[in-house]
Design brief:
Layout (H helix, E strand, L loop, with lengths): L26 H7 L6 E5 L5 H14 L7 E5 L2 H18 L14 E3 H11 L1 H4 L6 E2 L2 H14 L12 H14 L3 H8 L7 H17 L2 E2 L1 H13 L1 H8 L4 E4 L7 H10 L6 E5 L14 H4 L10 E5 L7 H11 L21 E5 L2 H17 L7 E5 L6 H9 L4 E3 L9 H14 L4 H8 L7 H13 L3 H7 L7 H15 L7 H17 L4 H15 L5 H10 L6 H4 L9 E5 H4 L4 E6 L16 H15 L2 E10 L1 E3 L10 E3 L8 H4 L3 E3 L20 H7 L3
């Protein structure tokens, strides 16, 4: 039995009194940790110990008698949930005086919004009219299914430009997550698609029908289904009663559906704690709604208690002074002033350079200089608003042989070989999935798209799709290899199917196809499949494995990794969006000029401009000791550079007016490195003037 705060661990007797596990917390953190049962909003500024505070609150609730089985902890990544559990467990271990061999209470309901939603939808599938065996589509599969519906609706053959499948899915997802009408989403986010409103409405109806017919849900459905379930008063009361406390991390990143879920779970706010920072709300492109955190306290009567965490443990005082000044100009915010005990004489720098090439050269020089001063490359980061802003810098780093890692690229589940194997498992788990069946059947040599559709049509028409698969007569060209696939599917769908032996069987069947399809790099791709098998051992069932891997996949894949990175060190390049939650000793931000920060495409409304301000604030608060903001005075028009020296002049970002600029050290403009003086050059061996005259004689 797992011990709880009110249980005595077996065979131990009463544990000895322990030292205060919360002794390291500051006064504001202790207020948040010791808060009672009313609604609580913790405004946690950058670097103020948000994770430890939330973990400590979880531990305190358990110490006060809360049942860990009745705590719902929601985060935005599985890693964050595990980190929260680990920290809370460590505090409880200390507080309960447990021996090293004894385990603290576990939190079985800790996970992401989507993972918790998937779990609840399976538990309540029957009253919701869902099949408990539904599969979760990842983004690529959802796009493919949208593409099939798009073709079936005849929209691929329009004489005018109709949105591609990825854009259609983006529009659909935006409507779901923002809870906004289609026409409004088209007008504000996709104006070039506005004439297709009626066709898109029909396409989305067909897409939903296809998902339901195939017992599939996409990411958005997990939230929409959870919210729909809670719209029923009886179900809402039943689900809400299962949890005494609901604690939410990164609340500023929630969308309208997620906020509705939380308020339906705890309509009066009792037992509801949310932690976040409105100044770091930068994901509106994912339909995150900053008003959720700005308006949270006022949604309850009496209003929720608000506790602000302002002591920063990351950055020096001069960096915080500049960051505070930038965000203080926001039109609306939860007021707070970050402060730090880390004094420093080094102010952040505004570095003016001639152009993008000079910017790249300055950054490369600075990176190497910092390295010589003892700051490893991995403790340095260069941040930018969008990926192409780093193009010139990447060339300069390659030229100087400075190793770097740039965040982004092909994701694990997007790699062809990984999708192939997972499709085998998904088809076995859900024989109604046309997407999985279409992909797997065509892995057999001789099975083309027409034969695959014939197979899937037969399976759709059959009461037992697995039996229809076994009875299918493949084309003659596929006959030799077809029996191996049907034997595999008999094993995976049979009563004796075991986990993770299922995956081992699928990998055994797929291995010769891997060699045939990817002969040039089959060994490298095999490493990914070996990793799949290792991941499988951590899950209790095939269904759990598929769901968890879809909701929280690994980032890397051999499709993009190439030769292993053998350097002793490497510089970090990252978009600002990808850098949120990270920290480095030294941070340089590229192109802090109007048109880049704020981006020229994000100045259409006051709300967009305010988010761009928050984006700069997030970039600045990643730095611990050194911060450089780069200000190139001109930059070339990339698309027209080959036509000549077409360029634009850049002005310092509007987010750094003169009063704020005084908090920075001004550097530059950087001059080009001087070459040898003209007098030092050798006398030319030819007469240039004579050559020019002679050309016209």
């Amino acid at each position: 039995m797992t011990p709880t705060a009110v249980d005595t661990p077996p065979g131990v007797g009463h544990p000895a009194p322990a030292a205060d596990p919360f002794s390291s917390l500051n006064a504001a953190q202790r207020q948040a940790v010791g808060h009672g049962h009313g609604p609580l909003l913790v405004i946690a500024g950058a670097g103020t110990g948000k994770t430890m505070t939330l973990a400590a609150r979880v531990a305190q609730l358990v110490l006060d008698g809360a049942d860990p089985q009745r705590l719902l902890l929601i985060t935005f990544s599985r890693r964050a949930a595990h980190d929260m559990q680990r920290r809370a467990g460590r505090l409880l271990h200390q507080a309960l005086g447990l021996r090293a061999t004894q385990s603290p209470p576990v939190l079985p309901w800790a996970g992401t919004f989507h993972a918790i939603g998937a779990r609840l939808l399976r538990e309540y599938a029957a009253p919701l009219g869902l099949s408990p065996q539904f599969t979760v589509l990842d983004r690529a599969d959802a796009e493919d299914l949208m593409g099939l519906a798009r073709q079936a609706q005849g929209l691929a053959a329009t004489t005018r430009r109709f949105p591609l499948k990825g854009t259609c899915l983006g529009i659909y997802s935006r409507c779901v997550n923002s809870q906004s009408p289609l026409d409004e989403v088209l007008r504000q986010q996709y104006p070039w698609c506005a004439d297709w409103s009626r066709e898109l409405q029909g396409l989305f109806r067909a897409y939903v029908a296809d998902k339901l017919a195939q017992h599939c849900l996409d990411f958005d459905d997990l939230l929409l289904g959870w919210a729909g379930m809670l719209a029923d008063p009886a179900l809402a009361a039943h689900v809400g009663a299962r949890f005494d406390h609901v604690l939410v991390d990164e609340y500023q990143d929630t969308n309208r559906v997620q906020a509705a879920i939380l308020h339906a779970l705890k309509p009066d706010g009792r037992g509801l704690t949310v932690v976040g920072d409105d100044a770091q709300s930068i994901y509106s492109f994912r339909a995150a709604e900053v008003r959720n955190i700005l308006d949270f306290a006022g949604r309850f009567n009496p209003p929720a208690r608000v506790v602000a965490l302002e002591q920063n443990y990351r950055s020096t005082a001069p960096i915080l002074a500049a960051s505070n000044a930038v965000i203080a100009l926001s039109a609306e915010r939860h007021a707070k002033t970050l402060w730090s005990a880390r004094e420093s004489s080094a102010r952040p720098r505004l570095v003016s350079v001639v152009d993008e090439m000079a910017q790249a050269a300055w950054v490369a020089d600075e990176v190497l200089a910092q390295r010589e001063e003892g700051v490893p490359l991995r403790q340095q980061a260069v941040l930018f608003r969008t990926g192409h802003h780093a193009a010139a810098l990447e060339l300069e780093l390659v030229r100087r042989r400075i190793p770097f890692v740039k965040y982004g690229g092909l994701k694990f589940l997007e790699a062809a070989h990984v999708k192939d194997v997972l499709s085998v498992l998904r088809w076995a788990e859900n024989p109604r999935s046309r997407l999985a069946g279409f992909r797997v059947s065509q892995l057999v040599p001789g099975m083309g798209p027409a034969a695959a559709r014939r197979l899937l049509d037969a399976m759709d028409a059959a009461a037992d799709p697995a039996a229809a698969l076994q009875a299918f007569a493949p084309p003659a060209a596929a006959a030799a290899d077809w029996s191996a696939l049907t034997a595999l599917m008999r094993t995976l769908t049979g009563a004796l199917a075991l986990w993770p032996a299922d995956l081992d069987a699928a990998l055994g069947w797929y291995r010769p196809h891997l060699q045939r399809l990817h002969e040039d790099d089959a060994a490298v791709r095999q490493a990914d499949l070996d990793q799949l098998l290792r991941l499988a051992t951590g899950q209790s069932s095939r269904e759990r494995f598929l769901t968890e891997l879809t909701l929280d996949p690994p980032e890397a894949t051999s499709d993009e990794s190439g030769v292993p990175h053998r350097d002793e060190d490497y510089l970090i390049l990252s978009t600002i969006h990808s850098a949120k939650g990270q920290e480095w000793s030294a941070v340089t931000v590229l192109n802090v000029i109007d048109g880049c920060l704020p981006a020229d495409l994000s100045t259409g409304s006051a709300a967009e401009i305010e988010e761009e301000r928050r984006l700069l604030y997030v970039a600045m608060t990643r730095a611990k000791h050194r911060l450089n903001l780069m200000v190139p005075q001109r930059f070339h028009v990339t698309q027209q550079r080959k036509l000549g020296d077409r360029h634009l002049y850049g002005g310092l970002s509007r987010f750094i007016p003169p009063a704020v600029a005084e908090l920075f050290e001004a550097v530059g403009p950087a001059a080009t490195r001087p070459g040898p003086a003209a007098a030092d050059l050798p006398v030319p061996a030819f007469d240039l003037a004579g050559q020019l005259r002679a050309a016209w004689d």
